[in-house]
Every structure is written in C-alpha cells, then in structure tokens.
Hints:
CATH architecture: 3-Layer(aba) Sandwich
CATH class: Alpha Beta
CATH topology: Aminopeptidase
Radius of gyration: 23 Å
Order of helices and strands: EHHEEEHEHEHHEH
Strand order of the largest sheet: 1-2-3-4-5-7-6
Largest sheet: 7 strands, mixed
Number of strands: 7
CATH superfamily: Gcn5-related N-acetyltransferase (GNAT)
Number of helices: 7
Amino acid sequence: MTIQDFDIQVASAQHVDYAPIICDEMAESAKARGTGIAQRTPEYVANKMLEGKAVIALHKDGTWAGFCYIETWSHGDFVANSGLIVAPQYRKVGLAKAIKHKIFDLSRTKYPDAKLFGLTTGLAVMKINSELGYEPVTYSELTQDEEFWKGCKSCVNYDILTSKERKNCMCTAMLFDPAEKQTELEEKKQNMARKATLFERIENAIKSFGQDLKIF
C-alpha cells in the first residue's frame, strides 16, 4: 500500500456521512495516546465539509482514510488546521503528511494573509509543521480569541492550561506567519542580488586585470 492508493480532496456535501466515524476515531486516538483533544460533534465536522473547509482522504476502495479541517479565529486573522486524523489501518504510508500539505494549501488559498497556528503533542505533526514553515512560539503569540480557548475545555489537560494562565501547557505551539515569511523571502532576494553584484564586480575586475596584462 502506497500514498498513490488514496484520493486526497477538499471535502464536500458528498462526504458528510463520514462525519460520525471521523469523530469516533478522533476520540479513540486521543484516548489511546493518553493526551487531550478538543472534542467535536459529527454536526460540527459535517458543517466544515459543507463550507469547503476540510480535507478528506479516501482509499481507492472508497473507505474513509483520513481527515483535517480549518478553523478561523480573531475575525480571520488566525487559522488553525485542526482534527488531523488517519484511520489506524492506513497509517505509516505518509497519509498524515499528505493531508497536512493539502489543508495547508487550502488554508493559504482561502486566507492568504492569516497566521496559521497549531497546538500539538505529536512529534510527527511537529515535524510536518516545521517542513511547512511553522516555527515554535509562545502561547502569547497565538490567537487570544476566547472561543478558541473554550475549545480546550474538553481536553484532559485543561486544568494544567488554566493553572498556568494559558501561558503554556502540554501542547507545543507552532505558527506560520505569512508576513514574516514574505519579509524573509525579500531579504533572501536582496542578499542574492548583493552577491550577484559582488560577483559581477569581481568578474569585471579580473577581466580588467587581464586586459592590463595584455598591454604590457
């Protein structure tokens, strides 16, 4: 079994029947890891599909294989790719990474100026986030939208979060800031331009020196 055996697409109305099994697997996965997760109802997940704010992966035989959805906070200034889940029988083939890349691209298309962030305890997710350009940050750099933090109430670690006044918890906070990435890209271009100019000057100096030698 390879990644080519799966169809990863933006979820729509035709996929809403998968919502209950997706929610069940999210809960079971969190229980197996012994970590927290903000619980979502099948209705909530189905609505994300109807809004075109979710990505679903299906095996070539039509079986549900993976899922992830978009949430927006602070009037769209912050976006989270939440609920990443892969069915147990389809793990270890790179499906989580492929879904994360798909939902990341969808988020950047829908909300090009928003900061993308995530809270996770999973090392594999952290690695994928890093590959996408996310960087570890403090909780203070995340959305301060109260509705987002209310979603943590169903997490088993919520008491830890509140006892530390939302400054940190068991999850690692990661952020992709498009404005910062654009600045880095522009600086990189400027550095390349300076190096090209320097190289051109050196090349011209060598040519000039060669011509001087011919004169003698």
